[in-house]
Inverse folding.
């Protein structure tokens, strides 16, 4: 089944028998049987006919609406998860300060371990680059994290560790056209091409996880490390921390260092910052989707795609809520 990305402004999604048709200016951009569609992501000013909406809902196909800068504006979903018992369990763990603290530590620990693994693997493939000092610092943060007694302390460790990682990330950019544009991680708005791609990628995997946990019955707005904030899918943000480097950062470095996207494929706006042009974003989606569908070896020598791993890790989180056991994040190796 396919994920459909639509970036053509003023395109229209229509129903044609049991097929989805995407048109613009009387030209057919895509026509696909509805049973082959898993989800749809729309970027910019895209229209959907009433018949198409009904067909999408009947076939349980989620549609996500983004603005042209990659910010999620809303979702069309058939139904929400009905597992109220899972939600009650989630609320109980959130209200219990000790349990919430422990879960937050599991999440931050997994994120830092992924930093360490990603940088270590890069060093092995690029012996001319030395991250030994930074790796030692990140390992020390894992020890420091366990001493924290409040969520704010966990967030402090996470913030400093992330800063150390992004200082290394700058040195992993080998395309000279992009070497000087990335100074630090900036999100709102992203002010350079690297931050633009990182923000878009993180938004996409957050939405991917959001759809999964929604369907499983979690409350996506009750997180543990990421606290409650109106409209923010905090649990999805918690659970994608373990996947940031292995999916998004990997894709961004691949696209830049292999010169798949050029510096001229970005445009700037004083209010909204930097974004990819239409042809650039198509290339990004192609490589991003390929990465999500990449299969890797997991437990018992079984294979699973990253998309499948999202589901498996969300399932694993149930055990932590139910039994209080350690949440074992996916670690990129």
């Amino acid at each position: 089944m396919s994920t459909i990305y639509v970036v053509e402004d003023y395109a229209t999604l229509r129903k044609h028998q049991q097929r989805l048709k995407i048109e613009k200016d009387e030209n057919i951009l895509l026509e696909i049987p509805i049973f082959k569609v898993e989800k749809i992501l729309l970027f910019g000013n895209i229209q959907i006919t009433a018949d198409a909406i009904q067909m999408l809902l009947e076939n349980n196909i989620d549609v996500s609406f983004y603005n042209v800068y990659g910010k999620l504006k809303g979702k069309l979903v058939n139904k929400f998860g009905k597992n109220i018992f899972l939600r009650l369990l989630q609320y109980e763990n959130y209200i219990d300060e000790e349990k919430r603290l422990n879960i937050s530590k599991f999440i931050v620990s997994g994120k830092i371990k992924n930093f360490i693994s990603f940088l270590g693997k890069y060093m092995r493939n690029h012996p001319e680059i030395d991250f030994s000092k930074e790796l030692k610092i990140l390992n020390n943060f894992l020890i420091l994290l366990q001493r924290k007694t409040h969520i704010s302390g966990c967030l402090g460790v996470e913030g400093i560790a992330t800063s150390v990682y992004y200082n290394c990330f700058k040195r992993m950019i080998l395309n000279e056209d992009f070497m000087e544009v990335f100074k630090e991680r900036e999100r709102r708005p992203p002010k350079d091409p690297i931050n633009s791609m990182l923000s878009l990628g993180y938004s996409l995997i957050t939405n991917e996880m959001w759809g999964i946990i929604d369907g499983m019955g979690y409350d996506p707005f009750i997180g543990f490390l990421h606290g409650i904030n109106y409209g923010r899918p905090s649990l999805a943000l918690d659970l994608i921390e373990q996947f940031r480097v292995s999916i998004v950062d990997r894709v961004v470095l691949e696209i830049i260092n292999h010169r798949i996207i050029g510096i001229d494929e970005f445009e700037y706006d004083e209010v909204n910052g930097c974004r990819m042009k239409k042809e650039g974003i198509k290339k990004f989606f192609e490589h991003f989707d390929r990465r999500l569908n990449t299969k890797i070896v997991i437990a018992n020598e079984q294979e699973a795609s990253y998309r499948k791993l999202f589901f498996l890790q969300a399932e694993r989180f149930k055990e932590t809520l139910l039994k209080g056991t350690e949440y074992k994040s996916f670690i990129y190796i």
About this structure: The chain has two domains: 2-76, 84-323.
